[in-house]
Amino acid sequence: MTGIAPQNPEDIAPAEDPIAHFKEWFAEAKASEPNEPEAMALSTADGDGQPNVRMVLLKGVDRNGFVFFSNRESAKGGELAANPRAALCFHWKSLRRQVRVRGTIVSVGDAEADAYFASRARDSQIGAWASPQSRPLEGRFVLEKEVALYAVKYALQSVPRPPYWVGYRVQPLAVEFWRNRSFRLT
Predict the structure, then answer these.
(1) Which one in 42, 112, 171, 178 has a CA-CA gap of 20 to 30 Å to 105?
(2) What is the pTM of this model?
(3) % residues pLDDT > 90 (the chain)
(4) Which has the closest alpha carbon to 100: 17, 16, 173?
(5) 161 neighbors 81 (Cβ within 8 angstroms)
(6) Is 13 exposed, middle or buried (0-12, 13-18, 19+ CB in 10 A)?
(7) DSSP code at position 183
């Protein structure tokens, strides 16, 4: 993994440890961003190389990479299966900072996915069963009906993780830190 070398080492992380610097910036974002500092743009490409981007939530970061969870049967799941590379972009407007990450995708283990799924709100767990991500619905009522059916099905027990609900880790090959300064000079 490479980091972008700083002009002023006090402003941007040394290239040797971009993950540690990301964690510092992320902690500052969690303290100051008014909405979802863990939101990140995830860019993927399908088997033909056609790009796609959407917002997802960062659920973990360590020396092995950046973790998010999703439905493997969604469009992003299909794209990651066909082309296991991705890019991330964090933008913290209130801090005037951005972090870009490029890397390869690996799946997290079942134990990690199960642990995270168990930590989610019950309604979010039900939603993971009910929502056919990236597939057309006949209408809102169809989704609400599925939510109700799964709520009844799991009314008296914990909600297990659906087999298609998985975690992905972006193992970074490059991490770039950007800070907005006067006249857009970083």
Answers:
(1) 178
(2) 0.86
(3) 75
(4) 173
(5) no
(6) buried
(7) G
Lookup: tokens for 88:
């991330």
Indicate the SS3 state at residue 113.
helix
Burial pattern 28-61, b for ≥16 Cβ within 10 A else e, equals: ebeeebeeebbbbebbbbeeeeeeeeeebebbbb
- Kindly state the tokens that stand for 142: 């169809």
Residue written as token pair 């168990």: 118
d(CA 28, CA 172): 21
- Asked if residues 20 and 63 have their Cβ atoms less than 8 Å apart, the reply is no
pLDDT in tens, 50-65: 999 999 999 999 999 9
184 is catalytic: yes
- The residue that leads in pLDDT, 6 or 98, is 98
Distance CA 144, CA 136 (A): 14
Interatomic CA distance for residues 99 and 94, integer angstroms: 14
What the block records as the tokens of 4 is 């972008």
Tens of pLDDT along 146-171? 899 999 999 999 999 999 999 999 99
> Encoding tokens for residue 36?
């979802």
